[in-house]
């Protein structure tokens, strides 16, 4: 599993960079991108469309020839034919960041995994591991402008939180820690539902994040074959972002089912902090890298 993040500065993109990026996407995407009222939303949408195309270029597919489609619930997936590996990806954005999580597996390995699929311990139903089941969510750790206090924030989203989650969050004395924990809970729920491609129709109260126990349950059961990864992303602007990834892995051991792995803080101001699984871009150079050898 890898994560790429594109930082969009306050000034946005130059018109040349924006137009260059638009030339790399399909007509339908171009129309959608231009439809936004705020230019920043257009920039974020463009970057989100380019990220998987740059990924596919690493698998021998020119950026302009990359084919992406959507499921009936709207989740994007790779439909480019004749790839040697199955590619699963998901994109999220908030404020200054557009991020993508992805994983790939050789077609033979995926077929073998389907044959040796695991059994859900509670229901004894077969669970076929699907590499395309991956979701990511990113949120800036800050109290929304329309909220006056942390308790009022918790109250305003109480219909998405379980009783345990609300109690745990409101018992935290440090307001900064409490806010970060809330976004931890929220992004994990978002990442899981996005991985399933279920969108907004999924009742978030069905997912419970035991922040202290580093475990997640869905409908009171541990999700079989699912891993959850979270980390803090420190932006060049100094802003703090919470990032969460949910993925169904064909390599996952039962010991990792529902486990939340904390990977600490990724500080983009220090190259030494950037790991093998994380890649950081600035928006304008990122678009330039997409246009090269398109």
From TrEMBL:
<feature type="domain" description="4'-phosphopantetheinyl transferase">
    <location>
        <begin position="134"/>
        <end position="213"/>
    </location>
</feature>
<dbReference type="GO" id="GO:0019878">
    <property type="term" value="P:lysine biosynthetic process via aminoadipic acid"/>
</dbReference>
<protein>
    <recommendedName>
        <fullName>holo-[acyl-carrier-protein] synthase</fullName>
        <ecNumber>2.7.8.7</ecNumber>
    </recommendedName>
</protein>
<dbReference type="GO" id="GO:0000287">
    <property type="term" value="F:magnesium ion binding"/>
</dbReference>
<dbReference type="InterPro" id="IPR050559">
    <property type="entry name" value="P-Pant_transferase_sf"/>
</dbReference>
<dbReference type="GO" id="GO:0005829">
    <property type="term" value="C:cytosol"/>
</dbReference>
<dbReference type="InterPro" id="IPR055066">
    <property type="entry name" value="AASDHPPT_N"/>
</dbReference>
<dbReference type="Pfam" id="PF22624">
    <property type="entry name" value="AASDHPPT_N"/>
</dbReference>
<dbReference type="InterPro" id="IPR037143">
    <property type="entry name" value="4-PPantetheinyl_Trfase_dom_sf"/>
</dbReference>
<keyword id="KW-0808">Transferase</keyword>
<feature type="domain" description="4'-phosphopantetheinyl transferase N-terminal">
    <location>
        <begin position="16"/>
        <end position="102"/>
    </location>
</feature>
<dbReference type="InterPro" id="IPR008278">
    <property type="entry name" value="4-PPantetheinyl_Trfase_dom"/>
</dbReference>
<dbReference type="Pfam" id="PF01648">
    <property type="entry name" value="ACPS"/>
</dbReference>
<dbReference type="GO" id="GO:0008897">
    <property type="term" value="F:holo-[acyl-carrier-protein] synthase activity"/>
</dbReference>
């Amino acid at each position: 599993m890898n994560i790429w993040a594109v930082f969009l500065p306050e000034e946005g993109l130059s018109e040349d960079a924006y137009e260059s990026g638009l030339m790399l996407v399909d007509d339908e995407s171009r129309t959608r991108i231009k439809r936004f009222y705020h230019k920043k939303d257009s920039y974020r949408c463009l970057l989100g469309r380019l990220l998987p195309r740059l990924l596919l270029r690493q698998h021998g597919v020119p950026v302009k020839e990359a084919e992406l489609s959507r499921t009936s619930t709207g989740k994007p997936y790779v439909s480019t034919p004749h790839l040697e590996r199955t590619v699963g990806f998901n994109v999220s954005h908030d404020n200054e960041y557009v991020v993508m999580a992805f994983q790939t597996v050789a077609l033979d390995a995926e077929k073998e995994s389907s044959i040796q699929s695991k059994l859900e311990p509670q229901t004894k139903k077969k669970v076929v591991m699907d590499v395309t089941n991956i979701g990511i969510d990113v949120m800036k750790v800050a109290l929304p402008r329309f909220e006056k206090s942390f308790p009022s924030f918790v109250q305003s989203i109480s219909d998405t939180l379980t009783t345990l989650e609300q109690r745990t969050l409101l018992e935290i004395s440090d307001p900064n820690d409490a806010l970060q924990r809330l976004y931890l809970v929220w992004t994990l729920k978002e990442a899981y539902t996005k991985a399933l491609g279920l969108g907004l129709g999924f009742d978030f109260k069905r997912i419970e994040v035991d922040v202290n126990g580093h475990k997640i349950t869905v409908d009171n059961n541990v999700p079989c074959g699912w891993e959850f990864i979270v980390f803090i992303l420190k932006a060049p602007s100094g802003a703090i972002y919470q990032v969460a990834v949910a993925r169904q892995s064909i390599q996952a051991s039962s010991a990792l089912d529902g486990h939340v792995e904390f990977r600490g803080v990724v500080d983009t101001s220090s190259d030494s902090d950037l790991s093998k699984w994380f890649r950081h871009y600035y928006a304008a150079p990122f678009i330039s890298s997409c246009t090269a050898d398109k």
